[in-house]
Amino acid sequence: MSWAGVIGSPIEHSLSPLLHRAAWDSVGVGSDWTYRTIEVTKETLPSFLSSLDSGCLGLSVTMPCKQDIMSLIDVCDPLAQAVGSVNTVVPSAGVLTGFNTDVHGIVMAIDQARARRGCDAPHSAVILGSGATAASSLAALGTLGITRTTVIARRFGGPGSIVVAATRLGVEIDQVLFSDHERVMHEIASADILISTLPAHIGDDIAKQLSPRTDQCLLDVIYSPRDTQLVQVYEANGACVVYGVEMLLHQAHLQVQLMTGKNADVEAMRQVIPQ
């Protein structure tokens, strides 16, 4: 039987099965294919990939495998290569090809939310964090026309750093350490868009000190919990808030296209998201 699945660790709370099954139902193949949830770590990733059978249509890849998988597949899409992160793998004739649909998910989520609010074109942005999702955010901001991006993080070195991704993408970033509190608050206050890629609760202290403008936009990529401290503060001040689940929805929609060649119903996928 044909199947697809999401791999990573921990994986039990992933919404990918709900989204992909709803997408498959919307194009009429839901009864023929199965979608699996598979616990895979960095250590077990090589053996898992080597065990894939011919029924595999594709893999949704989540942490901690998004970067390590790049050296284990046969072909890497140029965008995924530049960002340094693969979240989708599509097998074809024994060849494993990696893609990054997170960039698409971020672009669609922010663009649609700002359009609904009638926001002017953005010019500046701040990214909180410097890992794989931050690198995808940087690429997405370029697509949205951002000309100035500040990245705020505890550190900027190490493999998969956003600094390396910025070089590959051909863009410049301003680097600010979290320890430079005054600069951190100034950059966030002046940005048109804020994207937080921080784990849950890491940004709580910053959130409590913010007074966002109504023309500012926040995307917090966390989707559980949905109402993070940052989200609550931006909502309370009437700013444009983009929930992490919207990014997840749109990146999954593109994944379905890559895996099946079919254009699923986004609204049908949205309806299965727990409220």
TrEMBL record:
Keyword Nucleotide-binding carried by entry: no
Signal sequence extent: none
Biological process annotations from GO: aromatic amino acid family biosynthetic process; chorismate biosynthetic process; shikimate metabolic process
Domain named SDH C-terminal: residues: 244-272
GO molecular function: NADP binding; shikimate 3-dehydrogenase (NADP+) activity
Keyword annotations from UniProtKB, A to Z: Amino-acid biosynthesis, Aromatic amino acid biosynthesis
Alphabetized SUPFAM superfamilies for the sequence: Aminoacid dehydrogenase-like, N-terminal domain (SSF53223), NAD(P)-binding Rossmann-fold domains (SSF51735)
Descriptive protein name: Shikimate 5-dehydrogenase
